[in-house]
């Protein structure tokens, strides 16, 4: 599932956002996809011109576990 959001105001550093959700993918597949996107935007790592940033953000800010670091088990208190 992918959606694109654009901002109603002009900001040269952030013209639009892409939100991509997936259930299962290997690190090789994600690495290849990110490499293809950076090549299409002609981003050169180490140069002053940066056109592509990928920032992982969990979809649910109130989730029981951290989606970026793995499952964290919590104990529920009895009332």
TrEMBL record:
Q: Could you state one GO cellular component term attached to this entry?
A: lysosomal membrane
Q: What sequence ranges are listed for the domain DEPDC5 C-terminal?
A: 4-68
Name the Gene Ontology molecular function terms of this record: GTPase activator activity
Offer one Pfam family short name for this entry. DEPDC5_CTD
Its GO biological process terms?
cellular response to amino acid starvation; negative regulation of TORC1 signaling; positive regulation of autophagy
What name has this protein been given in UniProt?
A: DEPDC5 C-terminal domain-containing protein
């Amino acid at each position: 599932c992918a959606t694109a959001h654009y901002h109603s105001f002009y900001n040269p550093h952030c013209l639009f956002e892409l939100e991509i959700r997936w259930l299962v993918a290997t690190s090789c597949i994600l690495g290849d996809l990110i490499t293809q996107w950076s090549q299409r935007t002609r981003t050169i790592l180490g140069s002053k011109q940066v056109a592509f940033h990928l920032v992982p953000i969990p979809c649910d800010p109130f989730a029981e576990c951290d989606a970026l670091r793995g499952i964290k088990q919590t104990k529920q208190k009895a009332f």
